[in-house]
Amino acid sequence: MKALILTTEEIEIQNIEKPVAQAGEVVIKVQYGSLNRRDQWARVGLYPGMTYNCVLGSDGCGIVESVGDGVDASWIGQEVVINPNQNWGEDPRHPNSKTYTILGMPKNGVFAEYVCVPADRIHKKPAYLTPKEAAAIPLAALTAYRACFYKGNIQKGDNVLVTGIGGGVAQFAAQFAIAQGAKVWVTSGSDEKLATMKTKYGITGGANYKKEDWQKDLLKESGGFDVIIDSAGGSDFNLLLKTLKQSATLVFYGATLGSVKLDMPRVFFGQYTIKGTTMGNDQEFADMLAFIEKHQIHPIIDSVRPFEQIIEAFNDMRDGKIFGKVVIEM
Ligand SMILES: NC(=O)c1ccc[n+]([C@@H]2O[C@H](COP(=O)([O-])OP(=O)(O)OC[C@H]3O[C@@H](n4cnc5c(N)ncnc54)[C@H](OP(=O)(O)O)[C@@H]3O)[C@@H](O)[C@H]2O)c1
């Protein structure tokens, strides 16, 4: 079968053996996968626990083709989404550091014609989503769900800022906060993305982080934020602190622009809470699926591309040329 393999040099499409379901596992014919920034970090050797010669891809939707011993055969033929968490463990607050992994390195992921996963990783595809849309959900929406609710505790009426709205996770965070009844502002380096978010997604306001004093405009417009969800980090992190209300919370799940020398006095004088977060636990995955179904949330999809163009798709994500998720037809 065709698969996207991470080698020590690069990523490349190779032919590998189709997997066979062992006891407790299912083999899924992958219909669609979607890219995450994690895949690009792995491509350039910058992800913790780098392992080579495996299939990348954490987010996918497909049809169960076969099941191993001990798995309910009624799964065969069902459309499913895959929870990319593997071995989170018992503590809902954090994954088990010794055994936790994410689908798509070290274990073979979804950028292949077939993927084999433990049967308890699959969930029925939410009926209101197309398979393309469902493939855009798992890792990004789970990260956003935990950031917004378990960590950010976003409430109806809160002022919320989500940075870098073009990002795969950020788009979900903004939509989840709006569904919760918050007033949502976003930042972007693109005026077009800001305009789309205003006209189509009901954000209250936004600012272009490439413009000088963008944070002052946001502060003036909003009166300050109760919760900020960030993944850019870098030098703008201290500017974000200036837009928080007293006792507010800043949640971050990434540091795309690198680490920062923190403006510590501002944090303690402001009584701020800064929280790091990652994807979520298995209960949060199930809760996230119920939440998107209840609120009929659809992912923002940048494009759907054939598997043969997956490397170009990686390059576009690397170069920041996308808005939302890039979906790959397998
Ligand atoms: N810890 C975890 O479990 C976890 C899970 C998912 C993601 N992450 C991390 O979170 C980050 C985002 O992931 P993703 O998959 O959503 O990435 P992505 O889709 O590649 O999004 C990157 C976005 O960052 C935004 N950006 C660039 N410069 C910025 C700046 N100066 N200020 C604010 N935003 C800026 C851009 O937004 P515009 O296009 O709007 O300008 C861009 O679209 C990555 O570092 C990723 O590794 C971590």
Describe the structure.
It is globular, with a radius of gyration of 20 Å. Helix 3 crosses helix 4. By secondary structure, the chain is of the alpha/beta class. Helix 10 links the parallel strand 17 and strand 18. The protein has two domains: 167 residues, Quinone Oxidoreductase, Chain A, domain 1 (Alpha-Beta Complex); 136 residues, Rossmann fold (3-Layer(aba) Sandwich), CATH 3.40.50.720. Strands 3, 5, 6, 9, 10, 17 and 18 form a seven-stranded mixed beta sheet that branches. A six-stranded parallel beta sheet has the order 13-12-11-14-15-16, sandwiched between helices. A three-stranded antiparallel beta sheet has the order 2-1-4, with no helix packed on it. It contains ten helices and 18 strands. The structure holds NADP nicotinamide-adenine-dinucleotide phosphate. NADP nicotinamide-adenine-dinucleotide phosphate binds next to helix 1, helix 3, helix 4 and strand 12.
Q: Write down the CATH topology of the largest domain.
A: Quinone Oxidoreductase, Chain A, domain 1
What is the beta-strand fraction?
25-35%
Task: Report the CATH architecture of the largest domain.
Answer: Alpha-Beta Complex
Q: Which secondary-structure class do the elements indicate?
A: alpha/beta
Secondary-structure topology with pairs:
Layout: E1 2-6, E2 11-15, E3 25-34, H1 37-43, E4 54-55, E5 59-67, E6 79-82, E7 85-86, E8 101-102, E9 114-118, E10 122-124, H2 131-135, H3 138-151, E11 159-162, H4 168-179, E12 183-188, H5 191-201, E13 205-208, H6 214-222, E14 225-230, H7 236-241, E15 244-252, H8 264-269, E16 273-276, H9 282-295, E17 301-306, H10 310-318, E18 325-329
NADP nicotinamide-adenine-dinucleotide phosphate is lined by residues 36-38, 41, 140, 143, 163-170, 187-190, 193, 209, 231-232, 236, 253-254, 256-257, 278-279, 317, 320.
